[in-house]
């Protein structure tokens, strides 16, 4: 049971971290904010591993949502984590200035 509760929390955290990282690189076609699109980044959030190419693509697609998530105290601590900043660096997405 303990693992099943942690997975949704970690997944949500991963998504939010990615959004923060991608805020500065605006995409031409802005889509809806959908943290589930950041699921390819879950391993990086959990383990600090190098983000996949798909993770970086998804971060860039969702970058316009980062400041929205930073306003939520439940997500801010995850977005400020070292692994979120690692994703920003590795995906060449500046950390947002909201």
UniProtKB/TrEMBL annotation:
Checking InterPro entries in the record gives: nsLTP2
Q: Which UniProt keywords apply?
A: Lipid-binding, Signal, Transport
Would the keyword tRNA processing turn up in this protein's UniProt record?
no
Q: Does the keyword Transport apply?
A: yes
Annotated signal sequence is 1-29
Superkingdom, natural source: Eukaryota
Q: Which GO terms describe its molecular function?
A: lipid binding
Q: Which GO terms describe its biological process?
A: lipid transport
Which named protein is this? Bifunctional inhibitor/plant lipid transfer protein/seed storage helical domain superfamily
């Amino acid at each position: 049971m303990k693992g099943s509760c942690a997975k949704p929390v970690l997944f949500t955290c991963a998504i939010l971290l990615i959004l923060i990282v991608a805020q500065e690189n605006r995409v031409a076609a802005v889509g809806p904010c959908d943290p589930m699109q950041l699921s390819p980044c879950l391993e990086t959030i959990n383990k600090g591993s190098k983000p996949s190419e798909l993770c970086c693509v998804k971060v860039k697609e969702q970058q316009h949502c980062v400041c929205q998530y930073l306003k939520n105290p439940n997500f801010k601590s995850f977005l400020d984590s070292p692994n979120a900043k690692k994703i920003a660096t590795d995906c060449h997405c500046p950390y947002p200035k909201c």
